[in-house]
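User: Some background: our group keeps a shared notebook of sequences we're curious about, and every so often someone picks one and asks for a predicted structure to add to the entry. Today it's my turn. The entry only has the sequence so far, pasted here. Could you supply the structure so I can complete it?
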Amino acid sequence: MPFQLDYEMLRERMVREQLMARDITDPRVLEAMRRVPRHAFVPEPFRSRAYEDGPLPIGNDQTISQPYIVALMTQALELTPDDVVLEIGTGSGYQTAVLCELARFVYSLERYPTLAERASATLRDLGYHNAEVYVGDGSQGLPDMAPYNAIIVTAAAPVIPGPLRAQMANGGRMVIPVGDRYQQMLQRVRRRDDTWTVETLIPVMFVPLYGRHGFLPPDEPQMEDDNLLDDEL
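Assistant: Of course. Here's the predicted structure to add to the notebook entry:
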């Protein structure tokens, strides 16, 4: 009989040693991380490493983030059960599932159709029905469903995209990595009426956010960019 990994035991160890041992203290976030089967979102060749303290490749030069970063960004959103969330960068769908555990509904936007389709299927198979995955330019958000109580961006932008700021509800929070391709800081943005305040959290390293209000996509021709200066807070 082939050896079977005890994923539940590995998940509990992940929560205890990688999250609780650091600064993840929100009990709802810890419980969500206990419930979501991370291994289900990891490609088969890497599944045995699903609960390790690091990112893993998922295809299209994208990664599933380190569990600690997923928990930290989720905790920073300060979610309530009534919140509507916009996620930029669906990736594997793992972060989406964690958000589904904590919020009323999640709209997720992914650049790569193959990742979006795979994530949608995994979420559906696991019974997460309070999420919808779309394909498009994440730097422009999803204005048709705005405003959002919380926005989470899982790719690094050169500046905070203006469209995402505009789609925040009054009292909303956004967590986003900002910087160049090699040096980034995780930032939390809060909106109060027509004022946005920014708090710097920790240094991070994410893949680039490609799009009109992000980095120039490698598969698109150079274009005039009149957005970046306008997007700064």
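Suggested note for the entry: The chain has a mean pLDDT of 92. The two ends are 59 Å apart (CA to CA).
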